[in-house]
Amino acid sequence: MSDQFLSADEANRLGALLDESKHIIVTCHVSPDGDAMGAVLAFSHYLWRKGKDAVPVVPNIFPDFLKWMPGADQVRVYEKHEAEVEPVVAAADLVVCLDFNSPDRLLGLKKPVLALDVPKVMIDHHLDPVDFCEWSVSRQDMSSTCELLFRILVQLDGLEPMSYEEAVCLYTGMMTDTGCFSYNSNRSDIYYIVGQLLTKGIDKDKIYRNVFYSYSAERFRLLGYMLYVKLENFPEYNASLMTMTRKEQKMFSHKKGDTEGFVNIPLQIQGARLSVFLREDTERPVIRVSLRSVDDFPCNAMAAEFFNGGGHLNAAGGELSCGMENAVELVCKALKKYAPLLKGK
Ligand code: 5GP
Ligand code: MN
After folding, report:
1. Cα–Cα distance between 248 and 218 in angstroms, integer?
2. What is the chain's pLDDT, residue by residue, as a tens digit (345 residues)?
């Protein structure tokens, strides 16, 4: 694996931006997942180690199953404490944007961040980045932002000084964004990096349990209900659909993050190529759309064409501001339109 991931010029410019800054905001996309939190916390630990006043700020709450992460108690949630977080953001002399490609993904935090007349840095692996940062690296070939960040931190500072906390956070992002190394994870570099992270003393088995063995009993009952009552299979399209209303979420005391991973499960049906999950948001009057696929079915194209969204080839999402019935109709339309690709080989 090459140590020279960024060009010398890119690395120097990033190094200079970090050197020149004292109060750095480190942020990520709305509804942070393991990769977003992993990247935000790993970068924050790195900056703290360098003596910087870094503040991890996320647009809205992150799931309970990531609360164990080192540094999670330092994270400011903008949506929850706007008045307190705004002056902290306003005092920043650099903003580091991790795991997202457009200011729209910052939700309410977009306004105070864009209002800041200070340099911004973007490190991301999503398609079609929006040009809003002075310095950016956008690499869609990376399995996770954490993989990308590992390479950048090693290039800037070497592996030797990397801390245990940084390694734990980077591993968490790599593990969660690849479904525990079950997709997007065929490059040997990924395991070379995992090997290097293990030299920092991380317990990868414990990290796995921290993330995945932390569900409430209600979450399992909700999953059982979804699979037994709500799962609709369309064998003619090698696709399936699950819908979840606000009422159903209340019935099972749904907490943020409880439905994480639900959309992947129907892909285990033999021959399945696409899984669609529609969930009424509990905070805003919208339906969140999640798409997952296998092989070459382009979830991101479908999300962009039908669901006001985007994402990766095999994992994409979007949002609809209609009712559930219309959303289901739209899914049926999308399945029809994409039938040739869904029928596959
Ligand atoms: P999820 O289904 O976990 O919400 O999202 C899966 C992936 O789809 C995310 O990692 C992100 O790349 C993309 N995605 C989700 N929601 C949106 C959205 O509203 N807009 C765009 N452009 N991408 C999204
Ligand atoms: Mn990611």
Report:
1. 12
2. 766 789 999 999 999 999 999 999 999 999 999 999 999 999 999 999 999 999 999 999 999 999 999 999 999 999 999 999 999 999 999 999 999 999 999 999 999 999 999 999 999 999 889 999 999 999 999 999 999 999 999 999 999 999 999 999 999 999 999 999 998 999 999 999 999 999 999 999 999 999 999 888 999 999 999 999 999 999 999 999 999 999 999 999 988 888 989 999 999 999 999 999 999 998 889 999 999 999 999 999 999 999 999 988 999 999 999 999 999 999 999 999 999 999 965
Nearest CA to ligand 1 atom 13: 311
Query: Judging by DSSP bridges, how do beta strands 315-320 and 287-293 pair with one another?
Result: antiparallel
**What's the whole-model pTM score?**
0.90
CA of 183 to the centre of ligand 1 (A): 16
Residue 126 CB–ligand 1 contact under 6 Å: yes
Q: Is the CB of 290 under 6 A from ligand 1?
A: yes
| 241, β-bridge pairs | 232, 276
CATH number of 8-212: 3.90.1640.10
Matching residue, tokens 């991380």? 202
Output DSSP code: residue 319: E
Q: What is the dihedral of CA 142, 145, 149, 152, to 10 degrees?
A: 40
Which fold would CATH assign to domain 217-342? Diaminopimelate Epimerase; Chain A, domain 1 (3.10.310)
- Cα of 158 vs centre of ligand 1, distance in Å, is 32
For CATH 3.90.1640.10, the residue range(s) in the chain are 8-212
Closest ligand, as measured to the CA of 303: 1
